[in-house]
Amino acid sequence: MQTDKPMQVEVFKTSIDNDTASSLLKNVLLVLYPGARVNVDLDDCDKILRIEASELSVELVSDIVLAFGYECSLLT
Questions:
Q1: Total domains in the fold of the chain
Q2: Are 33 and 51 in contact (CB under 8 A)?
């Protein structure tokens, strides 16, 4: 019997502004969170980064995006 952890969903406002950066950040986040669902909506005015994973560190995600030179803040 499999007991799946509930998925945690976090949404961030970012300044990610191009497909290359979006793809690179998605790949880095997927290495850290295998099996996660990661999406960056570059058409949204807030450049939304949405991550769905069983375990997720908001601080780590923010730090990674900031390390790539982009702003990142959790939407509440």
A1: 1
A2: yes
